[in-house]
Amino acid sequence: MKVETARLTTCEVGRDGKTIALGVVDTSGCATSIHLTFDQAQSLVMTLPRLLTAALQRFTHNPDTRYVFPLGTWRISLADDRRNLVLSQMTPDGFEVSFSLPHDEAQILGNALSTEGAATNLNEPMAAKAQRAH
Fold it and tell me: Which of 10, 16, 23, 113 has the smallest number of Cβ neighbours within 10 A?
């Protein structure tokens, strides 16, 4: 069954923390909801930024176009395993994403951020620059 939505109305976490519910109103005005398991929601979150970028590239006819989130604030904390850092980045409107960051990668990222302003090619992926440096 295909559901065409007119708007998102609610976003809720199940009582047990194992499900996510998204309330929507369809184009005929009927309210419905989509229930996802934690794993399904995680897959969706990992897929949406790539889909948004692909949609923008198709719409603009520009393969270099990317869907970009504005950075509001960020923080770095020590992971529970005490071997990695957690890099959390938040947008001004409340979207937050966190990455596990091994200490050696944190050093590479720190070096890249401190020297990127003088870099010769800002469009080259960081991973490629980091590999070349080793």
Answer: 16
